[in-house]
Give the backbone structure.
Amino acid sequence: DGSCTATLIGPRLVATAAHCMLGENGERAKAVSFRAGAWGSSEQGSAGIISAEVSPNYSDRSHPPGEGNGDDWALLTLDRDLGLELGFVRPHVLDKGDMGLIRSGQFMVSQAGYSWDTGSHLSGHMGCQVLDAYRDGSFIHTCDTTRGDSGSPIMVQRDGEWRLIAVDSQFFDPQPPYPQLTSSHLAVDTRSFAEALRAAGALD
């Protein structure tokens, strides 16, 4: 009865946010289908969802940034190899070099999703910045995300290829030391679910 944004990260594997898997009553919802490249009533391809792995530690209770929000991730398995037909965005786990760029204010990313104000038409934010990466496996970014963008990909280019580094999670009031922002946007990055990605064969 609802929708979120998600990303093909393997032949049959899709990444999104754990809270996308909750129904209105807070109970686990059943994800039914995935539409790749959706644009209005059309799409590049679609597949059924046969299983979902949700972070075992996920709770819908929100914490202040950096204090335990790194479990908002889910991996969905499709019923066919849609990624081989259309392509997919391989995951990349943040490394020491990335963390150094984040600390120096030079780590730029891009995001794309189906926000409430564009509905079934994709919108994106190119060239936004990761401001701070936390030990709980999440980071604050400047991409303009809102409702509907939940689970949307935060991506970086590596050797001419887009790579997924996070799924968008939630937003807060402005956080210090960034009072100039109207809100603080938080994503759960692949450090949080690297083990699950590795088990699914999605990491190099």
About this structure: The radius of gyration is 16 Å.
